[in-house]
Amino acid sequence: MKDHLGRPLVAVTGIGIVTPLGWGREESWAALKAGTSGISRIRRFPVDKLRTTIAGTVELPEEAAGGPVVSAAARVERMAEAAVTEALAQAKLGDDGAFPGPLMLGMPPVEMEWPQRFELARQANGSGAYPAITERALGRRDIYETFLFGGVGERLAARFGTTGAPIALTTACATGASAIQMAVEAIQRGESDAAIALGTDGSVQPEAVIRFSLLSALTARNADPEKASRPFEKARDGFVMSEGAAALILESLEHATARGAEVLGIIAGCGERADSFHRTRSNPDGSAIIGAMRNAIADAGLSPEDIGYVNAHGTSTPENDKMETLGMRAVFGEAPPPISSNKSMIGHTLSAAGALEAAFSLLTIRDQVLPPTINHDEPDPTIALDVVPNVARPVEGLRHVLSNSFGFGGQNVCLVVSAAPGA
């Protein structure tokens, strides 16, 4: 029931997933194993003048039925609610609306979007000036509650009856992994027997697409959306924005065992390192990336040789994939384990990515199948890694997976996900 440092082992007893591949854990996982792409042309807003016109999008049921497009903040909350509901059902916990632990929510920063700004500008006689818009927004409770960063966590905490104040956090592309780390550490410190760890993002909206495009981060391979995300491949030219959510129900192994829960796996180790080199680029020496990977493995009480597979950050940008390769070589030497990128199929889900990839890592161990890196047409000679190209690979005896999350601003979090004891 304890790890090598005497801390409670942290078990996963529920997984919930929403991705462009489907609403639900098994639907998304089956499509991922099959190498199916969830990337398509953006349909929820005009893209005529945009450099990038593709993304991985998740439609809400009312949108699919022809209803109006909702704001990113509302989409974040709806996907999060669906993921937590599915995870709780699998864990068989919190059925009475009272969950015995806190909510750790990883989500993107939120702000008023163009439709709300245009509405307020019209009310201000056409003035789009910030003071005029702000004055019109005063007293608009609907806008305030929708775009209040902490509001999403407060409403989800009330919906699921979690204890204490919900924690809402953002650490760029490492956000989902950070939420898991915070939940794990709360259980390890004995502050709670259980926690909900959640990463969610619904940022495919005009302003966000334009901002990432101005950073030269997005691919412009619009002609064939399903082929656009190409991690580790020679012709990669940027990531594909996407959205989704993943929730993990975490409990101390003792708590899960005492109530007879099925243990799906263990979050065995968490490692983080940061640098302040650049707003978007990693330090060329790779020290923070390497340190985060090593810290996670050491925190799990393992050595690099124990890791049988790495779930890559693998964004499909020239810079990231080069740096992740550097980290792999530094940590694992001349014989690194296989590594593949879920983002080749679902795109980069930003604040949700770390949680989704940890969830898929658990399913990788469960089914003993490594998901592929699709669109790997021409290997990059500078990336000497086994990237599980194009087709999923059955394996045997896989017990430990390293899941990498490397964020803008040098925020890096890595997790070691392990098979349940005795499995």
TrEMBL record:
<dbReference type="InterPro" id="IPR020841">
    <property type="entry name" value="PKS_Beta-ketoAc_synthase_dom"/>
</dbReference>
<comment type="pathway">
    <text>Lipid metabolism; fatty acid biosynthesis.</text>
</comment>
<comment type="similarity">
    <text>Belongs to the thiolase-like superfamily. Beta-ketoacyl-ACP synthases family.</text>
</comment>
<dbReference type="InterPro" id="IPR014030">
    <property type="entry name" value="Ketoacyl_synth_N"/>
</dbReference>
<keyword id="KW-0808">Transferase</keyword>
<dbReference type="InterPro" id="IPR016039">
    <property type="entry name" value="Thiolase-like"/>
</dbReference>
<feature type="domain" description="Ketosynthase family 3 (KS3)">
    <location>
        <begin position="7"/>
        <end position="419"/>
    </location>
</feature>
<dbReference type="Pfam" id="PF02801">
    <property type="entry name" value="Ketoacyl-synt_C"/>
</dbReference>
<dbReference type="InterPro" id="IPR000794">
    <property type="entry name" value="Beta-ketoacyl_synthase"/>
</dbReference>
<dbReference type="InterPro" id="IPR014031">
    <property type="entry name" value="Ketoacyl_synth_C"/>
</dbReference>
<protein>
    <submittedName>
        <fullName>Beta-ketoacyl-ACP synthase</fullName>
    </submittedName>
</protein>
<dbReference type="Pfam" id="PF00109">
    <property type="entry name" value="ketoacyl-synt"/>
</dbReference>
